Amino acid sequence: MTRLLLLPLILLIGLLVLVTVDQGDRDAELVFAADNEVFTLDPQRMSWLGDMRMAYALYEGLVRWNPDDFSTQAAIARSWTVSDDGLTWTFEMDPEAQWSDGSPVTAHDFVWSWQRLLMPDTAADYSNLLFAIDGAPEFLRWRADALANFTPSDGGAETLLAATDRQFQKTVGIQAVGEHTLELRLTHPLPYLLDLLAFAPLMPVFRPAVEGWQLSDDDWQQVHEYGWHAIEPPAWKSRTFASLSQTTGRVQPDHRWARPGTLIGNGPYLLDTWRYRRDLRLARNPLGRTVDPAMPERILLRSFPDPNTALLAFRSGEVDWLTGVSADVRRDLLDAAATGEQDDDVLVRSIHAVPAFGTDFFSFNCRESLADGKPNPFHDAGVRRAFALATDKESIVEHVTGLHEPITGSLTPRGSIPGYQPPQGLGYDPDRAREELATAGWHRTPTGALVDGEGDRFPPVELLYTTSSARHRRIAAALRAQWNEQLGVDVVLVAKDSKAFGSDLRAGDFMIARGRWYGDWGDPTTFLELFRTTDGNNDRGFSHAGIDAALTAAAAETNPAARMAMLAAIERDVFETHLPLLPICQIVEVTMHDPKRLHGMTKHPRLVQYLGDIRLAQEPAP
Amino acid sequence: MTPMRRLVISRLMQVPLILLAVYTLTFALAWLIPGNPLERDEGRRPPAAIADAMAAQWNLDDPWTFYWSYLGDISGVNWLLGNSTAVIDFGPSMRHENWTVGEIVSGQLPVSMTVGLAAILLALVIGVTMGTLGGLRPGTWVDRLTGSVSVIGVSIPAFVIGTAMLLVGGVWLDWFPIGGWGSWSHIVLPAVALSLPFAAWIARLTRQGVIEELHADYIRTVRAKGVSERVVVMRHVLPNALLPVLSYLGPATAGALTGSFVIEKVFAIPGLGMHFVDAVLGKDLTMIMGIVLVYSFLLVLLNLTVDVLYAWVDPRITLRHDG
Questions:
Q1: With a threshold of 0.90, does the pTM exceed it?
Q2: Whole-number Å distance between alpha carbons of A339 and A24
């Protein structure tokens, strides 16, 4: 028996050791929760909204948005001028701006960070943000070709990199014309350039931190005094986080620089601690330009993969702000808020439903034939229009999602871009839907089946959606019922996990697939470029020479009002005639915070929350 | 050499072969997951030149290159050849590039192990007590009560129990924090929730064992000698009745230590079980390989440990090694 007792004893000792080794939490004034871990803190590598929220706290760009209307305002750039032809922009930077190690923020920081964004070696998702800059897309291709043709030789990688730097300086319209003066040359006027410059991937990074420079004290002193460009970069072997591959010629990044201790930023907050999937803590940056004592001293991000647990943590007061409430629990919450049935009115006043800068839709496969070679009935725009006209979106947002999202007939969300009025698109009109089908050559037999002139039935429509949320399944089921009733077609639901879904989508292996698109910059082109034949996100295989030509013409238009009118005409044409996708509704984000406790929270559809703007109420709310 | 020592050595020598087989099989399965680990599920895609550069950086353009170069990194061969500073290098996570797989696994495995150990300990205490009580008086109300408790423990899903426990213990009573990690109070709720199915199973095994042993001839002899009932149960019945529990404990501990996806998700515990599911869904190849190999290694070790313990507790069992 004593031997038997030994086993639990060993387990108990093991437990004690583990618990003592693991250290506890330290607290923070503001705790917020997200459902996902931060993917990266390197702004040039970012593509997720949650990561970008951190970028706006850790870094500061040339300009920033006004959280009320998302107009742009000065940040590191104090002022700027535009040449008469709209092609040359000159930014005067704040000479007082500092990196968190005390080095000055200079125009060279921006030049280097943006060259980094354009280098295929960095493999940045958003490298095409800078494609309006003269020579930028050509530079990316030049370097990609040079790397593809690279043959290993002694010192070859260094030679190629030096040639690349020269190529950039010679051909790309990004230039430091003074220590604190940056000049950009564009190929065509870009009315939303400032909006782009406020976007996270264009935040500057500090080269010695990113590459992990190991320098002598004298060299560091030079860097702190004048900036890193004042000295020769150290040899590659003295760079902790970057290496130059002699076999591929590439600059090989080690992404571990973006962690506490080595990450150097210029934003209002510093990265204090970060434990993977536990918590990430920010501390006020004493050298930040905009730091003031009313800002929370420390901010803690906790990740809650289960939405129910996040809600419980909010209710118990452990979390002050939920950045997103999962679609699967928000309906109950909103109902509770509407009826006020929760006795707890802190909870009711803490629920915020904000229409976002994005749209839920269903993509039609517009290609001539399907992936299996069969003819595709949705190649005919008339059939696509018929399916759109047979869709009762009002009933979906009322009965299926229950969130009463604003329904939409266009992709650009209404009221999200100043000076732009998206079209109405097609409404719910089952009679017209059947007429459209008849014109397209599909008739209903007395038994209700849909057949073509030769008596062949309309093929069963495969409706592809992702298993990630019950919301998608419910909407898909509602569409099946509506189309079956109004048009007499059979709809088969096909559910896949997001990776499999994504690969089917890219391969064009679907008939109708769910989709969702968030705008990146404050201009209709962030939505409308999807309809260009050659666009990398044209999953629908949609191609129309008229639309392509109109998009190109709008890009060349210099009068802002005329340009907006041209874009509106394009969107009207797309959504009243071509219908490559069927918009359902504007996405509604539900967030939670007590407005009596947190101030400075944005309610704009763009939903970029600057952490540096948040203030805590002095007195705790009752 | 004693048989025990021979068994241990021969089993340890099989470990590299088992791991190589696991590596190959996992790699084949993970490679076949549809999609691209570097691509977002939704949203704007990078230009083609960028996507190609990403794939090349990770050796994703060719399975053989990936298979062999990664095998070199994690087997220590590259270290022996002087190409790498780390002996075993799982590389960075493909989707969480600021972290290496090694850092993630070594940071999260102790978390899963702590919860798992606490749960197994609890399960042992609860299970053996309930099973012994029921087994000593089969058919009575005590037996029926412990029996129904164990049925509940096995059949209620963890996410229901977990959420209910958070609501009661965290919100209403406010005794425990809601999710998270870092102190004793964080362990209690998840450990209890995780222990229930194990406790239920141990209770059944114990009850069965106790009933069987009580009817054995040697127990009748012991009783006839006038030994007190307490000594009969503690010295004679339990040690033999608990042998099935001991063999169950091997796989159970392995299962509990490697983390439960549902428990970790509900209690927001940064353990490995959740990362593994996320890694598979996101096709994070390096994370998948790292976690599977570490799990396999642990599983092999635990099974060996239990075999050795088994022989040590019950000297009648001889360990043979037929190799």
A1: no
A2: 41
Q: Is the CB of B50 less than 8 angstroms away from the CB of A21?
A: no
Taking the C-alpha atoms of residue A249 and residue A148, their distance in angstroms, rounded to an integer, is 9
Phi-psi region of A261 (alpha: psi -120 to 50; beta: other; left: phi over 0): left
Between residues A412 and A14, which one has the greater pLDDT? A412
Residue A77, helix vs strand vs coil: strand
Q: A15: which chain B residues are within 8 Å (Cβ-Cβ)?
A: 114, 117-118, 121
Interchain contact, B281 vs A497, CB within 8 Å: yes
Whether the pLDDT of residue A145 is over 80: the answer is yes
The two structure tokens encoding residue B266: 């509900």
Q: Sign of torsion, CA A396 A400 A406 A411? A: negative
Percent of chain A exceeding pLDDT 90 equals: 67
Q: Would you call B202 an interface residue with chain A, using a CB distance cutoff of 8 Å?
A: no
Mean per-residue pLDDT, B249-258? 80
Q: Which chain B residue has its CA at the smallest distance from A275's CA?
A: B107
Alpha-helical regions (H) of A172-318: 193-197, 207-211, 217-226, 307-315
pLDDT tier at B323 (50, 70, 90 boundaries)? very low
What are the two backbone dihedrals, phi and then psi, of residue A585, each rounded to the nearest 5 degrees? -155, 160
B95-135 pLDDT per residue, tens: 888 999 999 988 888 888 888 888 999 999 889 988 988 88
Mutate to test the interface with A, among B44, B101, B202, B247 (most CBs of A within 10 A): B44
Q: For residues B37 and B283, is the Cβ–Cβ distance under 8 A? A: yes
Pairing of strands A581-593, A321-322: antiparallel
B113/B74 Cα distance (integer angstroms): 23
Any idea which of A19-33, A287-301, B85-99 has the lowest mean pLDDT?
A: A19-33
State the ipTM, two decimals. Answer: 0.83
Query: Please, what are the domains in chain A?
Result: 3-38+264-354+590-616 (3.40.190.10), 43-257 (3.90.76.10), 356-588 (3.10.105.10)
B residues 144-163 closer than 8 Å to A (CB): 159, 163
Distance CA A310, CA B80 (A): 47
Chain A: nearest CA to B118, how far in angstroms?
7
When pLDDT is averaged across residues A34-48 and rounded to a whole number, the result is 90
- Distance (Å) from the C-alpha of residue A78 to the closest C-alpha of chain B? 31
For A585: left if phi > 0, alpha if psi spans -120 to 50, otherwise beta; the answer is: beta
Nearest CA in chain A to B106: A276
Pair of tokens at residue A573: 């044409």
CB A206 within 8 A of CB A109: yes
DSSP code per residue over B258-284: T--HHHHHHTT---HHHHHHHHHHTT-
CA distance to A367, A412, A539, A578, B284, per residue, from A532 (Å): 14, 15, 11, 13, 32
Tell me the per-residue pLDDT of A538-567, one tens digit each, with 9 for 90 and over.
Answer: 999 999 999 999 999 998 888 889 999 999
Domain ranges (residues) in chain B: 108-280
Chain B segment 257-276 residues within 8 A of A by beta carbon are 264-268, 270, 274-275
Residues in chain B: 323
Q: Which of A125, A257, A464, A504 to mutate to test binding with chain B, by most B CBs within 10 Å of its CB?
A: A125
Task: Say yes or no: B114 contacts chain A, CB-CB below 8 A.
Answer: yes
pLDDT for B315: 66
Q: d(Cα B290, Cα B184) in Å, to the nearest integer?
A: 29
- From chain A, the residues in CB contact with B260 under 8 A are none
Q: Is the pLDDT of residue B322 over 50?
A: no
B108-280 CATH pick, 1.10.3720.10, 3.40.50.300, 3.40.50.2000, 1.10.1200.10: 1.10.3720.10
